[in-house]
Write a structure and sequence with these properties.
The chain has 306 residues and is mainly alpha-helical. It is built from 11 helices and no strands.
């Protein structure tokens, strides 16, 4: 009997060992395939990017200052208005009507007068606040080791690592600056302007007092590339992602193809909740409690919509 049990146990150990070995082998093959595939894709992609970057540098006649200030202004403004164009047309014309069903607060419609008011503030902040801030940061970027005139681009690993660091720095910077702006002694002087919109639309992401635009909209996404001494290419990539992301967050539409903007939309609706971008610090500080309760209640009352 004892011999039987021993051989049974031995057979089980062998089966487990074979299973573990197979899993490890499969993981190693998958990892190896993934790395090779990723490197292959990046090689093809990076040669196109390198030639594009080389064209960009040539366009600015290898002038670092022009490339940083004018190039960044053209890129960020272009991404902002292109990503907002669809939402502006949708809100002003109501076409295509089928997308209106995805509106989070359908009772609020964008009036032309409100749109023009937001347009003026957005243009003011981009031109009269954005350009001076860019001009002030150029020396710091250089001092921290940032390069952008070289035709060589950073490696894929470096780009991915820096994007992750930028996201964390932005979350910390935006969360705490945003919470400070909600301090009762400051709120009415600065941040109240942004909260005129209880149902935001895309361009409202930069509808803000100039002080807020600098400290909550420009510094948090700008700090990561400065601290890391990043290549301008990586900074541009992150700023483009950040602009599209904040446009979606303020769009007022819960479109199935995009990430949900409910988190920040709820901040505009209720004010003293959901201060961050990713929601990590809100969870840590418990400032998303109302939102989580609301989401759970909503799930209970409308189970089919979840
Ligand atoms: Zn907002
Ligand atoms: Zn706020």
């Amino acid at each position: 009997m004892a011999v039987d049990r021993l051989s049974q146990a031995w057979a089980t150990i062998k089966r487990i060992a074979v299973f573990v070995l197979l899993v490890m082998l499969a993981a190693a093959i998958a990892e190896d395939t993934f790395i090779r595939y990723r490197d292959k894709v990046w090689t093809i992609f990076s040669s196109s990017l390198r030639s594009l970057w080389s064209d960009v540098i040539s366009f600015f006649a290898h002038d670092e200052l022009k490339l940083y200030i004018v190039g960044t202004f053209i890129l960020t403004t272009g991404v902002f208005w292109l990503s907002n164009l669809f939402f502006i047309l949708l809100d002003l014309t109501g076409w295509p009507a089928c997308i209106l069903t995805y509106k989070i607060q359908p009772e609020f419609l964008l009036l032309m007068t409100d749109f023009l008011k937001a347009l003026k503030v957005a243009l003011f902040n981009q031109i009269f606040v954005g350009i001076p801030v860019l001009s002030c940061t150029v020396s710091t970027m250089r001092w921290m080791g940032s390069t952008w005139s070289a035709e060589e681009l950073p490696s894929v690993n470096r780009v991915l690592l820096e994007l992750a660091v930028f996201a964390v720095v932005e979350e910390i910077g935006f969360y705490y600056s945003h919470r400070l702006l909600h301090h009762p002694r400051l709120y009415k002087y600065i941040h109240k302007k942004h909260h005129e919109w209880t149902a935001p639309v895309g361009i409202v992401s930069i509808y803000a007092h100039p002080v807020e635009h600098v400290f909550a909209n420009l510094v948090p996404p700008g700090l990561g590339p400065i601290l890391m001494g990043s290549h301008l290419f990586t900074a541009w990539l992150f700023w483009a992602i950040a602009i599209v992301s904040t446009t979606i967050d303020h769009s007022g539409y819960r479109l199935p193809v995009f990430l949900s903007p409910d988190f920040h939309d709820f901040h505009h609706l209720k004010f003293n909740t959901n201060y961050g971008v990713l929601g990590i610090l809100d969870r840590l500080h418990g400032t998303d409690a109302l939102f989580r309760k609301h989401t759970l209640d909503d799930r209970d009352t409308n189970p089919k919509t979840q």
